[in-house]
Specification:
Length: 401
């Protein structure tokens, strides 16, 4: 559970601190207070700090304050606090207020009469309490999602004490961000790490808005959260809301890509571990099947539910090798051609013209490849049972890729 800027302004003893601009950023999480002592802050902050600007150690004219605002936005700090009084910064320039409002960067005015030691002590204590509460809330949710508890009633009682509204029915959502290796191939490690951290923070903030006041479990580009879903209609609304967010997000994230898997609806707290497994299976399908556009719900899996239920992986590998082993070995030695052809043929429901267009090859080339596929596998694509076997084998191959 993070401490937001709105929480800071509501702390006892800090009533004289006043938000002057950037109300849109009041939900920004505050990681720690930082007092700016140099002309700039870019090389001294990591993101999430509440930056205090006093003017004691460095002159703060309008140009410098605007520079600090620009660097604050660039480094994604939680907000700027400008101390005003007769000695150093007499008033906050209107241009600074306008720029902060336009950028959505919270700008708070603090009178010099409010001692910094009291402010930092209040914020530090609140951060420690928030961290302890957050850990307890995450622990409760982790136990529910893994089924690691002895008494569900006691765990739910603890959740109530921690302000976690878990009564009702839920849908588990799992998310995974991929493609970081492409970023590291394009730039130096330090800048890529900073970029990834900013993306992770932005995604985490948005997910907290989705999560109905419950904690979002997340680390290393993976997140899990609960969405209220008492029935199929609510689950459909959840799916649409996430899809509306995901599609434009992935355009901005490229070459990174976020994938989402959702469980079925209407899981009570006692079945959240089952719901998490459903979300995991849906996430695997979202990642492996591009036609799902990065998002899949467990109810949409179809035969993949059966494949995911096979615990003996050797059985699936054996089936794949029996049906498509010759094609896999051919493509391994000669380059990928037959497996992509088979996928395109299935995707286009056997339409040779459409499949050839999908692969950007001549129809005669595609026809020759299809004949080669049938000869190597000993199967006939015109035979319904052979097509069923091949389709299932293709699913196994995609899931294991």
């Amino acid at each position: 559970m993070s401490l937001t800027l709105a929480d800071v302004l509501a702390l006892p003893g800090l009533e004289s601190m006043r938000l002057r601009a950037g109300e849109a950023g009041l939900d920004n999480g505050v990681r720690w207070p930082y007092v700016a002592e140099n002309s700039g802050i870019a090389e001294w902050v990591l993101g999430g700090e509440l930056v205090f600007v006093t003017g004691i150690n460095h002159p703060r004219d309008e140009a410098n304050l605007l520079q600090l605002l620009e660097e604050a936005c660039e480094r994604q700090v939680a907000g700027l606090v400008v101390l005003t009084g007769p000695t150093y910064i007499q008033a906050i320039p209107q241009r600074l207020l306008d720029a902060a409002e336009a950028a959505g960067m919270p700008l708070v005015e603090q009178p010099y009469s409010l001692k910094m030691v009291l402010v930092t002590q209040a914020i530090g204590s609140a951060l420690i309490q928030s961290e302890q509460l957050g850990r307890s809330r995450h622990d409760v949710l982790e136990r529910l999602l893994t089924g690691d508890y002895q008494s569900l009633d006691l765990l739910l009682h603890r959740a109530t004490q921690l302000g976690m509204p878990l009564a009702g029915h839920w849908q588990v959502v799992q998310l995974q961000l991929e493609g970081s290796e492409s970023l590291f191939a394009q730039g130096d490690a330090a800048s890529v790490e900073a970029q990834l951290a900013r993306q992770h923070d932005a995604i985490s903030r948005r997910l907290r808005q989705f999560s109905a006041g419950l904690p979002v479990q997340g680390r290393a580009g993976q997140w899990t959260l609960l969405l209220p879903a008492p029935d199929a209609a609510a689950a459909l609304a959840n799916r649409q809301q996430l899809a509306n967010w995901l599609n434009p997000l992935n355009l901005r994230l490229s070459p990174l890509k976020l994938f989402i898997g959702l469980s079925a609806a209407a899981h009570p707290p006692a079945r959240l571990a089952q719901a998490q497994e459903e979300a995991r299976q849906a996430l695997a399908a979202a990642r492996r099947f591009s036609e799902r556009a990065g998002l899949c719900v467990y109810d949409e899996l179809g035969v993949l539910k059966l494949l995911s239920g096979v615990r003996d992986r050797a059985l699936l590998d054996q089936f794949l090798n029996e049906r498509l082993g010759p094609l896999l070995r051919h493509d391994l030695h000669h380059g990928p051609s037959l497996m992509p052809t088979l996928e395109a043929w299935f995707h286009e429901n056997g339409n040779l013209v459409a499949a050839a267009q999908r692969l950007a090859v001549h129809r005669n080339t595609l026809t020759h490849r299809v004949q080669r596929i049938e000869a190597l596998c000993g199967l006939t694509l015109d035979n319904a049972y052979d097509r069923l076997d091949i389709g299932i084998a293709l699913m196994i191959w995609r899931l294991s890729a």
